[in-house]
Design brief:
By secondary structure, the chain is an alpha/beta fold. It is built from 9 helices and 7 strands. Helix 1 packs parallel to helix 3.
């Protein structure tokens, strides 16, 4: 009984938080599905900011795996969001479709924009169930009124599982790119940023060898720029 009451209290807290946030978010709204927000993940925070810029006429209300069933039911009955958007990040084939699909199915319209697809060559060698997991995404993607993925390799992977109505829209964060690359050419030093993160062993080779390659790359670039 105590466990039951704790679950119901948790459902009530999640639903109240959702309704409070919806009241503070301008309408019409999109249900934003994707990303690890609020945990200092700069990539996902940048993606969320990019979608705000790409869809300025809509408020974005975040939904994710932690969204409770009562909150989803109220979202459906109250028509809180005009549509659900599967957003940036490598979600297709990586995230659990059983957690994503209930959210997208809550809304009468859902679409994919700028989402990445996991590379089968890489992940099949590390997870024998990857092929089945990727195939399980097909029904929910077929339900979407539009599928725009991050790059051509993502489009090819979806074509291989029978989805041919896929377009390549690029990485949403490119919306922040400087359109005039020569504007500050005379006032700043040419530079190149390398974003090196921890792969948790999910790359070819060791972490040490990957860092060594980045160092070699940086030295080679610097040498060529000085010649």
């Amino acid at each position: 009984m105590k466990a039951f009451l704790r679950r119901r209290l948790s459902d009530l807290k999640h639903t109240t938080a959702l309704l409070t946030k919806a009241a503070r978010t301008k309408a019409p709204r999109f249900a934003y599905v994707g990303g690890w927000l609020g945990h200092q993940n700069l990539g996902d925070e940048a993606l969320f900011a990019a979608y705000k810029k790409l869809f300025p006429d809509y408020g974005l209300l975040t939904y994710g795996p932690a969204t409770t069933q009562p909150a989803l039911l109220i979202s459906r009955w109250g028509r809180i969001c005009a549509a659900g958007v599967l957003a940036g990040g490598t979600l297709i084939g990586r995230s659990d479709v059983n957690r994503v699909s209930p959210v997208l199915e809550t809304f009468p319209i859902s679409f994919v924009f700028g989402t990445g697809v996991a590379n089968p060559v890489f992940w099949s060698s590390r997870d024998s169930s990857f092929g089945k997991r990727l195939d399980s995404w097909k029904p929910i993607l077929e339900r979407c009124c539009y599928i725009g993925v991050r790059g051509p390799m993502s489009a090819e992977v979806l074509a291989d599982i029978g989805l041919d109505n896929v377009e390549v829209v690029g990485d949403p964060v490119l919306v922040f790119a400087d359109r005039d690359y020569t504007a500050n050419a005379g006032s700043s030093t040419a530079s190149l940023g390398l974003n090196v993160g921890h792969s948790r062993g999910k790359v070819w080779g060791s972490e040490e060898s990957m860092c060594e390659q980045f160092v070699r790359l940086e030295r080679n670039i610097r040498f060529r720029s000085e010649v």
